[in-house]
Amino acid sequence: MKTPRLPIALQQAVMHALRDKLAQANLKLGRNYPEPKLVYQQRGTSAGTAWLESYEIRLNPVLMMENQQAFIEEVVPHELAHLLVWKHFGRVAPHGKEWKWMMEAVLGVPARRTHQFELESVRRNTFPYRCQCQQHQLTVRRHNRVVRGEATYRCVKCGEPLVAE
Ligand SMILES: [Zn+2]
Ligand SMILES: [Zn+2]
């Protein structure tokens, strides 16, 4: 899969959206949470992922090129909300009530768990799973073993079993 070159204007628009939503959240929460790092290395079919320990948001450049507005309006707030929830509440369920509250009451964005994008351009060679602390990409082979009930995989960091997203 080739990674497209992202136009600077698009990167700036995404960065602007991130700063805007962060400022809004800090104002409402009365905090001064720092700005997460944005990286464009998400692969597979996920639009983006939030990495708690490294406090970064990884965005899928292929899907971002094809769904620019949705990334700015939805994907960036969605992943930012994961990081803010972690800062504000500690470890809680990834899309639980805290995250919903963060999305809707604080960031003012409808809380949808997933994004509906055309995925033809991103080869489906991995499957997104989650534990308590991060997202994992499982290979087709491992994914099939989970589906058939032959294996359970655990996160080496938190020790929790991986659950399909
Ligand atoms: Zn999420
Ligand atoms: Zn984990």
Characterization of the model:
The chain is of the alpha+beta class. The protein has 2 domains: 8-106, Metalloproteases ("zincins"), catalytic domain (Zincin-like); 126-164, no CATH class. Helix content is 41%, strand content 14%. It has 5 helices and 6 strands, in the order H-E-E-E-H-H-H-E-E-H-E. The protein has helices at 8-29, 61-66, 68-89, 97-106, 140-147; strands spanning 37-39, 48-51, 56-59, 126-130, 135-139, 163-164. The chain has a 3-stranded mixed sheet with strand order 1-3-2. A 3-stranded antiparallel sheet has the order 5-4-6. The longest helix is centred in the N-terminal third of the chain and has 22 residues, at 8-29. The mean pLDDT is 90. Bound molecules: zinc ion (2 copies). One zinc ion (ZN) is lined by residues 78, 82, 94-95. Its cofactor is Zn(2+). Zn(2+) binds at residues 78, 82. Residues 16-165 form the SprT-like domain. It is found in: Cytoplasm. The active site is at 79.
